[in-house]
């Protein structure tokens, strides 16, 4: 039996860690200039800020790309033997920091470390002509961190030290709006420890859970629990592998990422037909489900606004819950290691995570895993 559960979100009254949303997601990459070009040309992000040797940094360069509320920071080391270079050597290009926008960074750091979070960096202050930003960082799964960012007293392009980039001649916007959720992959039997971490240390509550009967194919399985903060603006599903006949996609990720880390970022749009059409034109590669997926679709999800022709043409997935439906599609990994990928999602009332699509989707992933010789 399926055991998806839905539980009420925490009330604001007991929220000791109020979050305004995701502030930015920072990737450590081998070549930030070229990675930034990829996100601008393919995903339609606009280059808005830069910091590097020209602005006084000696050890790194960072490019900030943005589309509506989605802000990615692409950081590369300029020399060997520092923490950024070590992170890339171990994990490849990937997510380092899922930064959270708060009104009080010192309080966020104090409340979470008091409850058992490991401090990565005690509260610090950055200033420039545009004002002041307060930040502090704690550890989560693998080598990933959450930085709390308090920016009410700041009106610069990103953070103190970054210079604004006035014009971007590459950007090709596709209508992406905000980060819907960020999924973490953790190791065998580690999911519940991180569920406890987000509940006890960050004040999140479990929003939905899926066991290996919900998420299994002929070959492999995984388990997932979705943690949400009190106002629902920050959602972190946590996956762990489950026993199957062959290696699961989570195990493949853990092997190539060399441990736990962020698996995918789900980016929301309010017009997925236009967004995915443009992304395809701009070279973003998506997983494909077989034609047979669409044969049973209408009986599973009922009437929807989109035409079957459009869904098939763009290979979109649809799922319904008792509040509405959602449309989603997943990219192939965006680097050579089979690690981080993106989801594009449009919610039309649906608050779930596409449980009805898991089987078709994971079979599509397994076909690619097989091609890589990792199944
Ligand atoms: Fe997702």
How many individual helices?
10
Q: Describe the strand arrangement of the main beta sheet, using strand numbers.
A: 6-7-8-5-1-4-3-2-9
Order of helices and strands: EHEEEHEHEEEEEHEEEHEHHHHEEEH
Contiguous runs where pLDDT drops below 50 for at least 5 residues: 1-7
CATH topology of the largest domain: 2,3-Dihydroxybiphenyl 1,2-Dioxygenase, domain 1
Tally of strands = 17
- Gyration radius over CA: 20 Å
Helix content: 10-25%
What small molecules does the structure contain? fe (ii) ion
Please, what is the CATH homologous superfamily of the largest domain? 2,3-Dihydroxybiphenyl 1,2-Dioxygenase, domain 1
| CA(first)-CA(last) distance | 26 Å
The dominant shape is: globular
Secondary structure class reads alpha+beta
Strand content: 25-35%
CATH class of the largest domain: Alpha Beta
């Amino acid at each position: 039996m399926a055991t998806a559960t839905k539980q009420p979100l925490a009330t604001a009254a007991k929220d000791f860690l109020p979050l305004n949303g995701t502030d930015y997601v920072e990737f450590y990459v081998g070549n930030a200039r070229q990675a930034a070009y990829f996100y601008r040309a393919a995903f339609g992000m606009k280059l808005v800020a830069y910091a590097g040797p020209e602005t006084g940094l000696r050890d790194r360069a960072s490019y900030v790309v943005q589309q509506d509320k989605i802000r990615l920071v692409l950081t590369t080391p300029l020399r060997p033997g520092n923490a950024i270079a070590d992170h890339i050597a171990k994990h490849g290009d990937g997510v380092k920091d899922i930064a959270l926008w708060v009104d009080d960074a010192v309080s966020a750091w104090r409340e979470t470390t008091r409850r058992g979070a490991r401090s990565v960096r005690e509260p610090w202050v950055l200033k420039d002509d545009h004002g002041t930003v307060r930040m502090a960082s704690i550890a989560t799964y693998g080598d990933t961190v959450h930085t709390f960012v308090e920016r009410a007293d700041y009106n610069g392009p990103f953070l103190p030290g970054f210079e604004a980039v006035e014009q971007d001649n590459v950007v090709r916007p596709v209508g992406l709006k905000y980060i819907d959720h960020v999924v973490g992959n953790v190791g065998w039997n580690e999911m519940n420890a991180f569920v406890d971490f987000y509940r006890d240390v960050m004040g999140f509550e479990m929003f939905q859970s899926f066991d290996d009967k919900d998420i299994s194919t002929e070959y492999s399985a995984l388990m997932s629990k979705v943690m949400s903060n009190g106002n629902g603006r920050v959602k972190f599903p946590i996956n762990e592998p489950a026993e199957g006949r062959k290696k699961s996609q989570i195990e493949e990720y853990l092997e190539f990422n060399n441990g736990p880390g962020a698996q995918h970022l789900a980016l929301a749009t309010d017009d997925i037909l236009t967004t995915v059409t443009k992304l395809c034109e701009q070279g973003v590669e998506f997983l494909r489900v077989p034609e047979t997926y669409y044969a049973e679709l209408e009986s599973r999800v009922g009437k929807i606004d989109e035409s079957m022709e459009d869904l098939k043409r763009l290979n979109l997935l649809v799922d319904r819950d008792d509040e509405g439906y959602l449309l989603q599609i997943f990219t192939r990994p965006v680097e050579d290691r089979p690690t981080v990928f993106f989801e594009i999602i449009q919610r039309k009332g649906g608050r779930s995570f596409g449980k009805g699509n898991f089987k078709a989707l994971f079979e599509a992933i397994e076909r690619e895993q097989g091609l890589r010789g990792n199944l």
